[in-house]
Structures are given as C-alpha cells and as structure tokens.
Design a protein that fits this description.
Elements (H helix, E strand, L loop, with lengths): L2 E12 L2 E12 L3 E5 L6 H8 L7 E6 L2 E2 L5 H8 L2 E4 L11 H6 L10 H14 L15 H13 L5 E5 L7 H18 L2 E5 L3 H7 L2 E6 L2 E6 L1 H5 L4 H5 L5
Parallel strand pairs: 3-8, 3-9, 6-7, 7-8
Antiparallel strand pairs: 1-2, 1-4, 4-5, 9-10
Helix pairs in contact: 4-5, 6-7
C-alpha cells in the first residue's frame, strides 16, 4: 500500500525537555491512524511538525512524496492546501457567519464562480447535516455543531490528508460518537488518509485502522484496537479500560 506520509527519527525538544525523542511512522493511503498518549507526550507537537507549524530538531518528514525541509515557503503553502487540520477549538472565525467561514478558504480558487462557491458551501453543510446553520454566527452553535462545521470547512478544499487534534474533546458521549462516525464516513467517502490525536477510546474504536501509543518520547505500542486491548503492558492496557 502506498504511503502518503513517512516520518523517520523525528526529534523535538523545548529547552531541556525532550518531547519527541525518536519517532518513526508511516501513514498509508486511505488509512485512519489513531495516536494515543497521556497529556504532555507530544501528540499535538507531532502533527504540528508534519505541517511545519513547529520546526523539528532532527529527522525527516515526507508528505505526499515531498521532504518538507526541502520546500520553500510557496511550495510548503501549496502542500499545506492538500492537508486538512481540525483543531480542538474547530478554529472558526467568530466574526463571520457560517457561510462566510466556508467562503474564506475558497477565495484562492479564482476559477470558481459565485454560483459554484455557493454550491460547494451547501454541499459541505449537507454532508454534516447542518445546512440550516448557513447564516448563523459560530457563537450561536453548540460545541458539537462547531466541530461539524469546522470539519466541513476543512473538507471543502478536498484535502488528501486529514489531521485531527482531539476532535471529540469537551463533547458529550453521544455527540462524540457522532463526530467519530463522521470521521469514519469522511474516510470512506473521500478516501482520505488521517491521523487522529485523541484520548477518547470510543473515538479510536470507531475510526482506527491502526493505533500507536506514545510514551516517554517514543512509540511504545502499535497495532489494531483489538490487539492493543490485549496488551500485557500496563500503560497500554490502561487506555482501554472503560472509565
């Protein structure tokens, strides 16, 4: 299976604190890879290094067959347009309506007419079941609705890779399940390749093709949810105990 992402011996420290000591992993085309780990193990740092929002100290990151350290600013920006990033906050512009939030990333696509932009916005909202929210402000939306809107806005540019940073944090169990199912539906419908940072084992069970567990700056376990549930490692097994 072709890999869309390859990381080799990635290291990142902040002052004297080594956050990522030696991380190597791959992401296959069409795969959902879930990353588990306690707070402070570098999960968010890892995905920010992938898009060079944070500069790694050492290591090699290949994204869609391009070494990100060899790209100039324009080339890096072009690559980033092929990557969707869903932050914990959903990162909506609070001063814009939902419609305006969706239109904003489409401004660079100068070949689109207003009718085509309108059609894309409606389609994106229909896909997450929120077409009635098109003229609302983000402050009028619930946390779950904001996450759905944030995901739909990210997908409007048809990214090849999706990076999810704690997509279900702060949501009730029912809404968390809905967001997790939406991530899975997105993978199946759009054939996206995704890295999903989460503490939510229900999210991992629904979305993951493969799971890695971070600890002490490295990968301490890798496998399917079913395999890791049977792990004899106390730390790894603790993630899968129902609380």
């Amino acid at each position: 299976m072709d890999n869309v992402l390859q990381i080799e011996h990635l290291k990142k420290s902040f002052g004297s604190k080594e956050v990522l000591k030696d991380i190597s992993l791959t992401l296959a085309k069409g795969e959902n890879l879930v990353v588990l780990g306690k707070s402070g193990t570098g999960k968010s740092v890892l995905i920010k290094c992938i898009v060079k929002l944070i500069e790694a100290d050492e290591g090699k990151v290949m994204v869609l067959d391009k070494n990100i350290d060899e790209l100039n600013k324009n080339e890096l920006n072009l690559l980033r347009k092929k990557i969707g990033f869903l932050f914990q906050s959903a990162a909506l512009y609070d001063s814009m309506t939902v419609r305006e939030n969706f239109e904003f990333p489409l401004r660079d696509l100068r070949n689109l007419t207003q009718e085509e932009i309108d059609a894309r916005v409606i389609e994106a909202l229909v896909n997450v079941g929120l077409e009635d929210s098109i003229d609302k402000m983000p402050t009028e939306l619930s946390g779950g609705m904001r996450k759905r809107i944030g995901l739909a806005r990210t997908l409007i540019l048809n990214p090849e890779i999706m990076l999810y940073d704690e997509p279900t944090t702060g949501l009730d169990p029912i809404t968390s399940r809905e967001i997790s199912q939406l991530i899975l539906d997105t993978q199946k419908k759009r054939k996206t390749s995704s890295i999903i940072i989460t503490h939510d084992i229900q999210c991992a069970r629904i979305t993951a093709n493969r799971v890695i567990v971070l600890g002490d700056g490295g990968i301490i376990a890798e496998g399917t949810v079913e395999e890791l549930e049977q792990s004899k490692d106390e730390l790894v097994h603790s993630f899968f105990i129902q609380k």
